[in-house]
Amino acid sequence: MSPEDRGARDDDLDAEIQSHLDMAAKERMARGESPEDAQAGARKEFGNVGIVKEVTRDMWGSGGVEQIWRELKYATRSLLRSPGFAAVAVITLALGIGANTAIFSVVNSVLLRPLAYPHPGELVLITSQFPTLGFDQFPVDAAEFLEFKERNHSFSNVGAYYASAVNVGAATNPARVPAALASASLFQTLGVSPEAGRWFTDQETLPNAPHVALLSDELWRSSFGGESSIVGQKVDIDGVQTQVVGIMPPGFDVHDQGVRLWLPLTLDPDSVNSYRGGHYLNLVGRLKPGISLATARVQLEPMLAQWTQIDGGTPNAAPGQKGFVHTPNVKTHRLRYDDLLTDIVGSAGRALWVLQAAVFLVLLIACANLANLLLMRAETKHKELVLRAALGAGRGRLARQFLAESLVLSVAGAALGLLVARWGLHALVLSGNAGIPRATRVGLDGHVLVYTLALALGTGILFGLAPMLRLNPRAMSLSLREAGSRTTAHASAARVRRGLVVAEMALAVTLLVGAGLLLRSFEKLTRVDSGFDRSQLVTFNIVLPAATYADSLRRVRFFEQLDEQLQQVPGVQSAAAMSGLPPRRQVDANDTRFEGYVAKPGIPPQNVDYYNYVTPNYFSTMRIPMVEGRSFGPVDGAASPPVVIVNQTLARLFYPGQSAIGHRLQPSGIADTAKWYTIIGVAKDVKQGGVDAKTGTELYMLGNQSPTYLGYAPRNMNLVVRSTLASDVLSPSIRRAVASLDPALPIVGLRSMDEVFEDSLARPRFLAQLLIIFAAVALALAAVGTYGVLAYSVAERRREIGIRMALGASEGGVLTLVLRQGMVLAVIGLVVGLGGALAVTRVVRSLLFGVEPTDPVTFAAVGLFMLGVALVACVVPARRATRVDPLVALRMD
Amino acid sequence: MAKRHAPLTRIELLQGTLDLIILQSLRWGPRHGYGLLQIIRTMSNGVLQVDTGSLYPALHRLERQEWIEASWEQSENNQRVRVYRLTAAGRKQLAVERSKWEQFSTAIAGIFAAPPAEEV
User: Fold this and answer.
1) Are the beta carbons of A437 and A348 closer than 8 angstroms?
2) Would the ipTM clear 0.85, i.e. be above it?
């Protein structure tokens, strides 16, 4: 039936009923009634015209879409008649659905969206493990890469890369660009063709090959104006004229590194085997079609077992023993295979799922609240419902009406929620780095919209079901007989309402405990002693191009001069340079010989986590105290005997029960085995790997001694400047100081050390902040829910309370009566919630720092806080109850 | 409350009998809704009371089943009324309903009239 037909039939029905009323009135007038009485009487006899019409219309048959449309229109009209209720419901839903949509768009982009390569499920990250050194995921050596690529039968191709940064562009104003040095096979493995030009050839990855580079689409547009003529031209990269051979398509990257420039990874197959200790490559393999990761792991195990023998070693030889060859083996140097996407996401996955679960709980609580609101609304409409049912409106019909109402609410809520989500995502993006991988392309896409629609329908059905409890046939017939008086059906609805409040409280408590645990973790993280005074420190990074600073003495001289220049800047107290910047240092794991070392169980292998090349005033600038011995001084020059300072952890591990001072050791890469470095001091531990990581062993060497003894000096140094001035105030003077030495050097990452540390805590902060917001919303909703149910119950029991007061009950007595009713619910909710929290907080264990998932302080604090909030929510209706006027209450119907 | 009916004389309609009553009442000619209410009341001597809330939905349902059809006509006091009349299908249906009803009432009557055989 078309809407026009339906409109005509509606008019017909109106006319038909009007004629009925007219005839009835005429007959009454004929019996002598006045026209007014006659009309009123006819109407009264007829009954509720609206309902009769409605039930009659139902007989016209299910008009499909039109019927649903009519139902929705009716629901909308009915909701608009109670705008307060509708507004509260829609806003609650908008916040709940909006928050869910926002978090889901992050989950969708980060966790669910496949990597942007063909057949991304076949891609595997291949890394190594050193079980005896305690390294679970470590890069792979160049020889190992070439051998693996050749020997394995599980991967169709394997590529290698390592991330770096290079200076690109004009000699006076170069830009520092994230780069990767990649094997030619990496591009074949990833299977993405350049949008212009070509990949590297295998020849271009051999030593002394011409210098070539591939640009990312992003760099091509930002630095080269998107001119396709750039392909074939030469650009300045780290001071070397390098030919651009191609441009990769937009978004092409590896392992979410933000690579903007690709350079060939130079490997000499003839010489890589001479030194097998340089583990710096990440491998990406593409599984052969039909081979799963699990199958590959099994297939690759025999290869690992035979590796040492192929390379001429003894399988069981330990490091340092005869027959030991530094190749992968089953015991000390395993290979590890991870799905590429899983590895990129890493621990962020759990954090995001926790957030998604939390925000879903908030929505559930919102639904419970709305269910309660609808139940109370149904209560007030109860007589109308009974009448409709009696007139033959089926339960299905009534249920449809309720569902239509809740769906109108939830869809309106979802529409508004999308705006909330957009705004929320905008805020998330504005908050900048949240420490989440793949977060750059977070947005609302088709998947997210489907999710939101599903949420809207799901929530609509969920809370729309509540009033149907009032529609069970027994309740209906009882109500009909007893004319809507207080019945068992009524009591059952009250039970449902109380149950919903308990559930809300329990969910809110569980969320609060989770949020509390993460907040305490975050607080503990910020209180970790980083080992140095990070206030009033400004840091920045400089990389000297290999081409122009080939001589290591020149590198040392540059940083010494820069130190001097910086000391002279007004407001600067001291300045120093260091190769490693806390708190995000990757472990170097350098083989290091300790004089008199005896390999014994319980004694760690001869390996040091961090080497740090520093300038002499490093310790005074960083304010790292010496625990024992002395710091570097003027006596330690380039020509004087080599000295080293170790950290407390190294001293404890290698020199237990004795002083480390005076002992000697040999850093890796030393040419002359007769040269020993003497330990002159033990410095306080610095959290190089981050405040949440265990402190590693560390060596400090003087940069100016390393060319003499190691034949090497780092090109990549971090400078620290201690000053009372802010980083943005210092910035121009720092830039001038650097430019006065070499105008071609870009300055990178200039900011305060406090910011650097804050950044390293971005993810825990992000997680704790969002969870606290969600928990607060959950608690507020639960409190409002408790208040609502209690207030309703007080209004309902006014008569009873009035009688009690008339019989002499004190105000205190009434107050206690209502308070007890509310607080019993709160306590049940609290107990259930704490129990639930005990059961589920285990899943956040890996996100916690220094706090147990069962932390009694958090549980107790949440309990007290929640009881406090519940008490406030109960006191208001309770006080209202005490103001009931017995006379007024008793006079009510 | 207005006293409309003496409770003792009022009998609630058995489920499904309203259709039979309407079809049967239309056998003697077309009628509008109000007229049907009156005729049912008169024929049952005021015992059967049909609600407007039941009558109109039933009329529209029967119309949809094409057992009755409706048209707008002028009444004797010159009023536009919607008048229902039996269709051929309606007549057939009436026969079916009637025979069902007769079987039913015979059966009930039988139960009441049967001698108490087992009783001693």
Assistant:
1) yes
2) no
